[in-house]
Amino acid sequence: MKDLSLNGPSGLGYLPGYFDRDAQEALLAEIRAVVARAPFYRPVMPRTGKPFTVRMSNCGPLGWVSDINGYRYQPLHPDTGLPWPALPARLTALWRDIAPQAPDPEACLINYYEESARMGLHQDRDEETFEAPVISVSLGDTATFRVGGLTRKDPTKSFRLQSGDVVVLAGEARLAFHGIDRVLTGTSTLLKNGGRINLTLRRVTHPA
Ligand code: MD3
Ligand code: FE
User: Fold this and answer.
1) Is the CB of 112 under 6 A from ligand 1?
2) Number of structural domains the chain divides into
3) In this structure, what are the phi and psi dihedrals at residue 173, rounded to the nearest 5 degrees?
4) Which distant-in-sequence residues (6+ apart) come within 8 Å of 32 by Cβ?
């Protein structure tokens, strides 16, 4: 694992090409099966109701949602009312490989970026516990992501994430501000219609 922490918060790990092309295709097929049962929906910002440019779904016992009332984790899809599909075994295996000491993940947020989608600078802090890392997998077109420090004003650095790359946010970096500036169209052939899928595995509750 490479350390991208350089000047910023410690604990930002990078595993370029963790998933080879065959594994990316297998993982994508599993995600397509998840999304067939838990369709992508477009979340809106709390209070303002402004739609996100990213579409989202989840798998695992809990899913992250955003609507007019706020951000939260919940066991049911907001549109279908059905439980989120199970986490594919390949993702549990990734988590256990990288974070063998952590309790198993409870949520996998699936972000789908079409050409002009972005994600503004934010922290991931809707979980009850920040002890476990967040583990991210990128599929499809390359994206430029930005990571700062523990306050919004801290300086940021940007990196490119390619299909098959894994990012591990542990320690201080777990609460770093971060976002996706843009997706570089036409940089991958994995998704037939282009765009980018990002998976983030999270532990939400304290272990029993
Ligand atoms: C977590 N996703 O879903 S993942 C998100 O590519 C999210 O869709 C982005 O931010 C995406 O909440 C980024 C990689 C990432 C990078 C830096 C982080 C996740 C991070 C820093 C702290 C916590
Ligand atoms: Fe995030």
Assistant:
1) no
2) 1
3) -65, -20
4) none
Nearest ligand 1 atom, CA 176: 22
- Ligand 2 centroid–CA 122 distance in Å is 6
Q: Are 164 and 21 in contact (CB under 8 A)?
A: yes
Is the CB of 62 inside a 6 Å radius of any atom of ligand 1?
Answer: no
Does residue 70 sit within a domain? Answer: no
Q: What's the gap in Å between 53 CA and the centre of ligand 2?
A: 14
d(CA 113, CA 119): 9
Question: Amino acid letter at 33?
Answer: A
Rounded CA-CA distance 46/181 in Å is: 21
Residue 189 domain flag = yes
Q: Which domain holds residue 179?
A: 2-39+52-63+86-202
pTM over 0.85: yes
Q: State the average pLDDT for the chain.
A: 97
Q: Which residues of the chain have pLDDT under 50?
A: none
CA of 162 to the centre of ligand 1 (A): 14
Look at residue 208 and tell me if it is in a domain.
no
Long-range contacts of 89-93 (CB under 8 A, 24+ apart): 90/23, 90/26, 90/27, 90/30, 91/27, 91/59, 91/137, 91/199, 91/201
77 lines ligand 1 (CB under 6 A): no
The CATH number of the domain holding residue 29 is: 2.60.120.590
Whether 124 maps to a domain, the answer reads yes
